[in-house]
Amino acid sequence: MSHEFEVGNVHVGSGKLFLIAGPCVIESEAHVRKMADAIQRITSGLGVPYIFKASYDKANRTSVESFRGPGLKEGTAILRRLAEATGLPVLTDVHEPGHCEIAAEGADVLQIPAFLCRQTDLILAAGRTGRAVNVKKGQFVAPWDMKHTVGKLQTTGNNRFFLTERGASFGYNNLVVDMRSLPIMRKLAPVVFDGTHSVQTPSAANGVSGGQPEFIPVLTRAAVAAGVDGIFLEVHDNPAEAKSDGANALDLKYLHGLLETLLAIHEAAHAKVTAE
Fold this sequence. Notes:
The structure is a single chain. The protein has 8 helices and 15 strands. The strands form 4 sheets. The chain has an 8-stranded parallel beta barrel with strand order 3-4-5-6-7-8-11-14, surrounded by 5 helices. Strands 1-2 form a two-stranded antiparallel ribbon. Strand 12 (200-201) and strand 13 form a beta hairpin. By secondary structure, the protein is an alpha/beta fold. 33% of the residues lie in helices and 20% in strands. The radius of gyration is 17 Å and the shape is globular. Pathway: Bacterial outer membrane biogenesis; lipopolysaccharide biosynthesis; Carbohydrate biosynthesis; 3-deoxy-D-manno-octulosonate biosynthesis; 3-deoxy-D-manno-octulosonate from D-ribulose 5-phosphate: step 2/3. Keywords: Cytoplasm, Lipopolysaccharide biosynthesis, Transferase.
């Protein structure tokens, strides 16, 4: 039941590959503007529809000492100003039902984190804002069971939603991606593949998560070949100094080359489907 809708100037589910990208967390207003401008230049040059992402609060950090971000009100204001200045649609995480209406003032897409994909009140509150909703499939959830999350969203009358694959728990401190999940979930809604969290090694680096970013190109190429609607990437200009998820982020300098490859694969995969 793949459906099409618009998020700003991005047509989700239209058959054209789109990108969601940005730093994991708002480190500063200057930094998110720098990242948004840099990524927008790349995507504009390649003709890739683009949604900027950054979190105002990383509420699920492994350690209580980890950086979380500027918080709901300040973060929402930063995102609103960024959207107005760049014209980009914006995505951010929400963690509590009471945050949804406020976050919706600054974001075009409200994202349900993977750990919270079964939290009914949060899903309903996000859906009722009328904003588009991205639900990340939990590491502990079978792809076919996302039909229950979809059902919850549909009760709000909001049909502007998509689902994101970010890997499944594979023993301790490890994830694995089952590419079969992509066409399974695409029967429910448009599907995005998260190429950076899928290479994460959760909580494996002494109180923070580690990662294997060298596998980002491998997995994203496979996902595009499998027919996803969009790609999600956490991108940073200096991953070693990132305040959250730097270990699994894509270095900005690699983004242009990766997108060129993904576009070529998408074109080939789409041509094959059309021929059939």
